[in-house]
Amino acid sequence: MYITKKMYIKPDMKLSDFFFDNPYLLLMMEHFNLNFVTHEKTIEDLCNEHSINTNIFVDIANLYNGFNEISAEKYQKNDIPTLINFLKNSHDYYKEEKYPEIRDLICKISTINETAEIKLIKTFFEEYFNEVVEHLDYEDKVAFPYFIDILNKKESIIKQADYSAKVYCDHHTDIESKLMELNNLLLRHIPLGKDSSLRRKLILSLFEMEYELKIHYLLEENALIPLVSNIEKNIK
User: Fold this and answer.
1) Which of 45, 69, 93 corresponds to the end of one domain?
2) Do residues 27 and 101 both lie within one domain?
3) Residue 213: inside a domain, yes or no?
4) Cβ(56)–Cβ(31) below 8 Å
5) Looking at the 3D structure of the chain, how many domains does it have?
6) What's the whole-model pTM score?
7) Which of 67, 113, 138, 174 has the highest Cβ tally under 10 A?
8) What's the rounded Cα separation, in Å, for the pair 63 and 131?
9) What is the pLDDT of residues 113-162, one digit of tens each?
10) Distance between CA 234 and CA 157 in Å, rounded?
11) Where are the beta strands (DSSP E) in 25-163?
């Protein structure tokens, strides 16, 4: 995990200055579908150019800089598509890049360190990965389309008693907690074989993924779900 200087980002600052302090902001730009070569533009300039609520951009950037505060009070219902697009792009990154990277490292370790404990780690991760894919697919195919329908005031959708933002919230889980368990096993309990280099890469990758998932969880819990709940209340 790259250690940042934890500087609070503000709208009048140039974003390009922060990439040197925290390279993970490059990943944030990808999730926004933005080019990270921003030249001398301020954050406010960039947001105005791409019709993004500056408050959302600044809050997410500060999540990546280690400030774990985000609230829907500064956002509007029309910001829901921005949040959903960001989250869906995050899903693609998890499924197509980060999780395959972790799986590949575990497979390489298991060929070097063929202990029962490593085999359990491999099984644990495969089960976890399947659970995560199911969770992300549920959000992409059920929850997010419902949220867009609510935004577009499709009242026939809101009247369906079997689904709401509360139902989604009740089933929403912090999928990063199992990564913490995995790192705990690798760091505290499973003896090293000849896999120290690979295990270091795996542990760092797990920490990076946990960092990403925490941001993902905060965006959904503290921004997206409250915005949708407010729309539901107004329609009812």
Assistant:
1) 69
2) no
3) yes
4) no
5) 2
6) 0.89
7) 113
8) 25
9) 878 888 888 888 998 889 889 989 999 998 999 899 888 876 555 555 46
10) 14
11) none
